[in-house]
Every structure is written in C-alpha cells, then in structure tokens.
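W.,

You were right to be curious about this one. When I first looked at the sequence I had no strong expectations either way, so I just let the prediction run and decided to look at it fresh. Below is the sequence, 460 residues in total, followed by the output.
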Amino acid sequence: MRVIMRTLFRSSLLVMIIMMVIAAACVRPKKSKVFSDQDVANAWADMALYITKFTPANSPTFASRCFGYIGVTMYESIVHGFPDHTSLAGQLNGLDTLPKPQSGADYNWIISLNAGQAEILRKIYIQTSDANKHRIDSLEALVLDQFSSVDESVVDRSTQYGKSVAKTIFEWSKSDGGHRGYLQNFDKSIVPPTTPGAWEPPLYGQSFSHYPLHPHWGDNRTFVKFNAELPTPKIMAYNKDSTSDYYNQFEQVYKKSQSLTQQEKETALWWGDDPSDTFTPPGHSYYLGTLVLRKQNSDVIKCAETYARIGIAVADAFINCWKWKYQFFSERPSSYISKNIDERWQSFWPDPPFPAFPSGHATQAAAVATVMIDLFGAEVEIADSAHWGRNRDELRDVDFKPRKFTSFWQIAEETANSRFYGGIHSPQDNDVGLVEGSRMGRNVNQLKWIRKENLTAADE
C-alpha cells in the first residue's frame, strides 16, 4: 500500500511539474530593453549617415537635401505627441498640410518615428543597394519588436501614421527641383565663362569629372521662405595687381601652403569629407548633432527637433551657396596662383568640381552652429571621432586623429579654416560663408518650434 501511495504521489507531482512548465511556456517572455526613446532617434540618425556614406554617386548637394527631409520627417512623425511643440506644416515652403493623428486615439510615438524614418530613407535613397535597404528593414523590425508590447491597434495606427507623414513629405520633396539629383551630378552642357577671375575645371581635381557639379542646384526650393530672399553677398573684383586686396587673398593662401603645420594638415584632411569616402560635409554636421544629443541625454522630441533644424540648415545652406557659386563662377586659388604668383604651385587638397565663392563648408557649418547655439547654448565639449580609424594618408603624411571642441562656433571656424589650409578657398570665401550661413541658421531658428504660450520671457 505504501508503495502504491508513493507511486501515486510521484505521478501527481510529475503532472504538477509538467503543468507548471506548460503554464510557464505560455507566458510571453519579457523583452529585454535595447533602446530608450531617444536611442531610437539617434539610431535612425546613424542609419541615415550609413546610407549616405555607402550609396554610390552621392554628393554634398544631394546629401544636404536628404538630411533636410529626413530630419523634418522625424520631427513631424512625433510632434503631435508633445503639446509644447508645434508642427512645421504651413511654415515651410510648399508644405501646406500634413496628416494629423486621429482625435482621441492612442499612439505610440516611437513606433511612429520608427516607421517614418524607415519609409523616408527607403524613398529618398531609392537608388541605394539592396543590402542597405535590408539594413533599414532590419532596424525598423528591431525597434518595432521592442516597442510593440501595446495594443495591436495602437501599433498599427502608429505605424501607419509615421508612414503617412513620410509619404506626404516625400511627395512634397519631389517638386523642389532636386528630386533624384544624383542622376545628373555633372552638367556637360555648361560652358564656364572665360573672363578674368572665372572658375576653370581643375587639372588636379577631387573628382574624375571636369564638368561642374549641380550648376542648377541654386534654383531649388529652400525649406525656409526667408532663406530664398537673402540678398546676394558682395565679392571682390578681379585684380592681378600685387598691391590689390584681391591679390592679397590668394597670396595668403600661397604663403600658408608653404608653412602648414602638422596640425593644420590634419585639420585640412579631417574636414575634407569626400563623398566617395565619407558621409559628406552635411553628414558630418548631422553626426556632430548626434554627439551632442547623446552627451546631453536629450529626450526624443529634442532629438527630433535638433535633426530637423540641422537638416533644414544644411539643405538651405547648400541651395543658397550653390546659387551664388554659379552666379559669380569665381576661380579657385589654383588658377589664380599658377597664373600670377607661382606657375608650379599645387594645393594641399585637390580642387572640387565647382566654383569657389562662397565656401560650402563654411556656409553650412555656420548655419548648423547657429541652430545648435540656439538649442544648446554656445559652449559644448565634444570629441569628434567621425573619421577615427581611417587609414593614414601616406601621400600627405597625415593620420586621422579625433578632434576636441569647446564651442559650436569653434567647430564652424575650424571647418572653414580647413579649406584655407587645403589651399582651395581664400579667406573671402570662408568669411562670407560664415556670415551668410549664420543668417540662414537664424531664419531656421525663427520658425515656430515651441508654442508661444509655453515660451518664457527670456525665450521671447
């Protein structure tokens, strides 16, 4: 009898254990936390930089445009979840309306951001490789998997909303003049002027092409209306007299090239951001924004607003800069110095395939510094490691070393100076670029980002 009782007890115990295992197996395992809300925004910025870097036939001009639409999409995909902030619909050139969330319905704004970023990247970089498209899909699925432990209707509604915002913004982008601009980077029909001081295609160039890059980019629609209305900056008149201010501009470039320090050489290469090797100059600005956001541990709406402001700033900076470049068709130091100072001179960094005035690097860097100062204050301590780990440039005897900064304007000035050290811009190109870029950045800041009733007296 005791044997029978023991056997029954053991059988009952085994059944209970099996039932407990089955019950435990039916409980949905708790997902490990991979991303915070702001991590999702930063991860998509990282993805935008990766796609920019590894998509063939990219250019600084086209990339700047992409960052504009990518940044605006991030902001608009979540802005209605943050009552203190206001939409850019009706504020940006040609963007009259955008989809609005259903009144009284619940949304998961991170799912919306996730869907919107994936959609705009797939559309704005439709020419990228299948491998890159798979990367976009994988990040979208990874984020969705983490944040989808809510009601299924909320997941679907939030996903569809983010996608609808991205699709609307993409349709808006198609009418700006730069849609699929990578299909004609260089215009063979353009004949540069032959007047004294006019740009000449470089013999020692950064690009394989001797035709000018995107000569009609300045006709594109700006994001901010007031940036299209800025007056044309003044340029010095050509003069080959050695006592003239114009001659002095290029003499400064020539003398600097003969006394470059190792640090100045490192600066010249660090900010080169050749689109065939890097995520381009506007991408560098987008990257620096991520560094600051991570350091500040900014919340997701601050991240989205920052990327939107940077994107708009670089996009408008390149439109205006290119408009003025092809209005003046101004020469590079290489042609002036070889004709008037030293016929055997070569610049430290090769000439890009477009006119000089004003400097694109300086213009976009100043525009970004201006919006970042408005967002975070003038001072910042960051280490720029964008190109750390790149192979040493044996030809120029230069390593790529991380660079430390203590203010946003210091970054803008070094970006501009790097082109002077490289021998491809005169001081005038940089000085005017910094001034004009600042103006464009201020116009971006003047958009209504925060609802007026939530502004403090200091903000106003």
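Here's what jumped out at me. The longest strand covers residues 379-384. And, maybe more interesting for your project: Strands lie at 379-384, 403-407.

Coffee later to discuss?

I.
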